[in-house]
Amino acid sequence: MRAVLIASLFVLLAGCGGGGHPVPRVPAGNPSPPVHVEPDDNEKFVFHPAAPHADPLPEDPQDLAQPPSRGYRDGAGVFVYASRGGAVWVLLARRAPWLSAPGTWGVFGGSVESGDRDSAGHLSFARAGEHELYEESVTVYHQTDANALRACPAHLKHWRSGGRFRTFFSRQRYVPASTFNEGYAYAVRQRLSHTFRENDQYCWVPLDELKAAALARTRTAPFTDPEGNRQSMELFSAFFGALTDPGYVAQLDALP
Asked: Which residues face 69 on adjacent strands?
């Protein structure tokens, strides 16, 4: 049974293309072929004022978020990974000082907002992931819209509060962490909306090391960046909680 699950995940992952090129909008269940883009370690930051917007975004029963209730909200996030040097890397972001749990690391994500709706007017996890990826990458991944995220494999986490959090595992082109760090500095200088200043540092870490930390139930662990430097990083509690979920781990095991 596990073999069938993993095989199915590999099929899904094949359709989750990189964000450096426009992704064809295709119906769910008919993903586009993967896009291979060579890493560019010298890519400079450019702010892209136009956000992605999947239009139309057809109604999808698996993509429906629930309205806020009893003090909780549904949320959505994007787990960004890329291939470089024959290895798989995960992009982590450090929470800014003005947020809760400042200095901890996690993936892009946040609450489903009132404007995150599909073409039928229903709250959409993918629409929320669309705006979170755009804002929290400081527009570096500005071309990945909600339809493209729907083509990615996803994991739905149920919290004890009653809220849910859907994570989209999105394969993107590798962009050096320095580019994102330039983006944060630009957002501060230009006094952009706080949504572009939620993360004050970025770092790529090996997928294998992240999986090892999850397996060991180690929230604070040393990780190696692409230049071979090691630094101790404390993972954001909600992200670490997701990493201990068997379904989430199965998705990590299936990443190419």
From this structure: 72
CA distances 214 to 157, 221, 249, Å, are 16, 10, 8
The CATH number fitting domain 2-254, selected from 3.30.565.10, 3.30.1360.40, 3.90.79.10, 3.90.230.10: 3.90.79.10
Strand pairing class (108-111; 105-106): unpaired
Highest average pLDDT, of 37-41, 185-189, 243-247, comes from 185-189
Residue that is written with structure tokens 């962009």 in the block: 175
Q: 240: which 2 tokens?
A: 């670490």
DSSP annotation of 115 reads T
Whole-angstrom distance, CA of residue 28 vs CA of residue 36: 21
Which amino acid, one-letter code, is at 208?
D
pLDDT per position as a tens digit, 108-162: 999 999 999 999 999 999 999 999 999 999 999 999 999 999 999 999 999 888 8
Q: Are 177 and 194 in contact (CB under 8 A)?
A: no
Name 64's bridge partners. Answer: 124
Contacts (Cβ under 8 Å, ≥6 apart) of 170: 16, 19, 78, 79, 80, 81, 133, 144, 148, 149, 152
Question: Mean pLDDT lowest for which of 70-79, 90-99, 113-122?
Answer: 70-79
Amino acid at 8: S
Handedness of CA 54, 236, 95, 16 (dihedral sign): negative
Q: Which two tokens stand for residue 238?
A: 């909600």
Task: Please say whether the beta carbons of 233 and 205 come within 8 A.
Answer: yes
pLDDT tens-digit profile of 1-20? 434 334 444 334 444 655 43
